[in-house]
Amino acid sequence: MTLARVVAIVGALVGGFGLILQFWLLYADMTANGASPLEATWRYFAYFTILTNTFVTLVMARAALMPERYAGLNAPRVELMAVTSILFVCIIYNLLLAARWDPQGWQKIADVIVHNVVPILFAVFWGLRPHGSLTWRDAGFAAFWPLAYAIYGLGRGAVDRFYPYFFMDPTAISYVQISLNLVGLVVAFLLGA
């Protein structure tokens, strides 16, 4: 068994545990405060962090089950998109968002898993995998994930008025500022990829 496969197995298990734990905590909190199960589930999938952790956990799970396949979820350009996205989850959270709250107990464990442990595991996994001949075009492909999320997040927010990130919240900042923030993030993703 290769080291990449071992890291993929560990990463998929840790990622799955972190996602389930985070869902359980959010679900328990929201339903205890009167939200329906559907509302709690809808809120869970509002976060770039959750969607990206789900994405990279699926990439690692597939690599754990089919380590010799380098297509689909394990195509080099898809893995590049995944590693860029999960590392930005780690960086953005730790630079801009972590100071805004102080999780305790199980919430702290879930928080550390989805924002730090999974990004580190996936970066190690990615470093152990073959990448083929990635080009700037593939870097552009990697930037598609945050751009798609921006459209999704703003569309969701227009419906339910919930914006999980202050830098994408039109109730707090202008659409011009949001556009500038998104351009900056996409450029950062391109350069990161």
List keywords for this structure.
mainly alpha, 0% strand
Topology, number of strands: 0
Helix-and-strand structural type: mainly alpha
Percent strand: under 5%
- Cα radius of gyration in angstroms: 17 Å
What is the helix tally? 8
Chain-wise SSE layout:
Layout: H1 3-32, H2 37-44, H3 48-65, H4 76-97, H5 105-128, H6 136-142, H7 144-160, H8 175-192
Helix pairs in contact: 1-2, 1-3, 1-5, 3-4, 3-5, 4-5, 4-6, 6-8, 7-8
Provide a descriptive summary of the structure in words.
With 193 residues, this protein is mainly alpha-helical. Helix content is 75%, strand content 0%. It contains 8 helices and no strands. The protein is globular and about 50 Å long. The two termini are 28 Å apart.
Condensed summary:
This protein has 193 residues and is an all-alpha fold. The protein contains 8 helices and no strands.
